[in-house]
Specification:
Elements: H1 20-85
Amino acid sequence: MTDTPKPQPPRAEAPAVPTPDANEMTVRKLAAKLQSQQVAHQAQVAVLTKKLDECRDRYARQGALLSNQIATILERIDAIRRSLSQPGKT
């Protein structure tokens, strides 16, 4: 009997190891993308902050206007009460 060598299964090739240059490029791309996103987010925050300030100003003006209107109404009510409570008036 002769021993014939058994066929060996094909060797799996080792996965390609990225070179340091490829890793460095990937890191640079990711850093650039992150920087771009950060700039975009900062711009969005600036726009939203401006809108918030505008709303605060508008509501402050409206609040002051309402406060003045309420004061005027209360003065009118007081004037009416005084005129009704004066003796001799019918």
